[in-house]
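step=encode ok
step=design start
structure_in=
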């Protein structure tokens, strides 16, 4: 594999945007850079990038800490993508491992990840890392007027 993991920097924004598009979401590099700037300032969030042996970013993972009355403290993997050319080479596994280590350091007793039903590959990937289905749900979204 030969990939290394590091914390993302603002200069990673263009490649993170390209990978986000590969994940299936629209991503403008300038907008992603603004989001990344905001997220990197937060101690309860971590954005990691995987850098391949050739030196280019080939994946990213965002994790955050959450706390709720019903569920308590936990970390959540908010997003994970590895470029098509590097999939099934251990890059995603490495990113998740580093996120879990960060979560342990924050005192989280568990890591949660949500995966769209259409992401069939992730439904094999996460169980291979020891994750188990906790529930199924419907997600609602309401845009707010600004």
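sequence_out=
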């Amino acid at each position: 594999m030969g990939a290394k993991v590091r914390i993302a920097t603002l200069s990673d924004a263009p490649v993170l945007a390209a990978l986000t598009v590969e994940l299936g979401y629209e991503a403008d590099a300038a907008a992603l850079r603004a989001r990344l700037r905001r997220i990197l300032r937060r101690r309860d969030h971590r954005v990691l990038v995987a850098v391949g042996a050739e030196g280019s970013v080939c994946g990213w993972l965002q994790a955050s800490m959450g706390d709720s009355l019903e569920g308590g403290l936990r970390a959540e993997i908010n997003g994970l993508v590895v470029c098509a050319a590097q999939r099934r080479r251990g890059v995603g596994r490495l990113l998740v491992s580093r996120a879990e280590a960060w979560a342990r350091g924050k005192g989280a007793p568990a890591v949660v990840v949500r995966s769209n039903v259409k992401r069939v590959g992730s439904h094999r990937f996460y169980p291979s890392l020891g994750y188990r289905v906790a529930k199924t749900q419907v997600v609602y979204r309401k845009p707010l007027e600004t």
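step=design ok
step=annotate ok -> The first strand starts at residue 4 and ends at 7.
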